[in-house]
Amino acid sequence: MVSAYDLVVVGAGSGGLSAAKQAAKRGATVAIVERHHLGGVCVNQGCIAKKLMV
């Protein structure tokens, strides 16, 4: 288990996951802290704008 991280992301919504992914691609050691489900409220409860899919 790693005891030191280059980046700790609080919140695993779309922004947090994107930030963590980009940092990891660049070689950073990343930890994500999330209280609920990965992806955030909009991804898991469907509040993403539907007009974008039309």
Output the keywords.
single chain, 54 residues, alpha+beta, two-stranded parallel ribbon, 2 helices, elongated
Q: Can you offer a commentary on this structure?
A:
It is elongated, with a radius of gyration of 14 Å. 2% of the residues are buried. Helix 1 links the parallel strand 1 and strand 2 (30-33). The mean pLDDT is 82. The chain has one domain (7-53). It contains 2 helices and 2 strands; from the N terminus they run βαβα. It has a two-stranded parallel sheet. Helices cover 33% and strands 15% of the residues.
What can be said about the biggest beta sheet? 2 strands, parallel
Please report which band the strand proportion falls in: under 5%, 5-15%, 15-25%, 25-35%, 35-45% or over 45%.
5-15%
Approximate helicity band:
25-40%
Spans of at least 5 consecutive residues with low confidence? none
Overall pLDDT = 82
- How many runs of DSSP E, i.e. beta strands? 2
How many distinct folded domains? 1
SSE series: EHEH
Shape: elongated
Number of helices: 2
Strand order of the largest sheet: 1-2
Which structural class is indicated by helix and strand composition? alpha+beta
Q: For the record, give the distance between the C-alpha atoms at the N and C termini, rounded to a whole number.
A: 45 Å
Radius of gyration over all CA atoms, rounded: 14 Å
Layout of helices and strands, plus pairs?
Blueprint: E1 7-10, H1 14-25, E2 30-33, H2 40-45
Parallel strand pairs: 1-2
